[in-house]
Amino acid sequence: MRTFGILFVVLGLAGPAVAGPLEEGVEAVVRGDYATALQLLRPLAEKGDPDAQINLGNMYFDGNGVPQDYVQAHKWFDLAGSRLYRDTLAAKMTPAQIAEAQKLAREWKPK
Fold first, then answer.
1. pLDDT at 19 (0 to 100)
2. Which domain range does residue 94 map to?
3. Is the four-CA dihedral 72, 73, 76, 78 of positive or negative sign?
4. What pLDDT, in 10s, does the model give residues 41-77?
């Protein structure tokens, strides 16, 4: 699942664009440098960047650089508008976890 998310973002970034925090964060994920990825992606995700939100959700889904947390992963996928990731993950969650993730997504505000 994580690989699909990374490929989605990397393919979306292909072109002559100059590397920025999102691209550097994705590259850090690919390298396995999750501390750097988290440092670069979290602020973007918190500001509402859907590509950063998907990548952060994947980090929580896999437990890469953060504790594995399906509720947080579901929240970030929901905020990114990624029904595919969110619904795939929901199949692994309890109804209480889904309700908590939905509550967090509803209460979230960009920083």
1. 84
2. 2-107
3. negative
4. 999 999 999 999 999 999 999 999 999 999 999 999 9
The number of domains in the chain is: 1
For 43, residues 6+ apart whose C-beta sits below 8 A from its C-beta are: 21, 111
In 3D space, the residue among 109, 81, 53, 45 whose CA is nearest the CA of residue 61 turns out to be: 53
Which residue in 34, 46, 52, 104 sits closest to 75, CA to CA?
Answer: 104
Query: Could you tell me the two tokens for 8?
Result: 């989605």
Return d(Cα 56, Cα 76) in angstroms, integer.
7
Q: At what angle do helices 50-62 and 2-13 cross, to 10 degrees?
A: 160
Single out the residue of 73, 109, 110 nearest to residue 91, CA to CA.
73
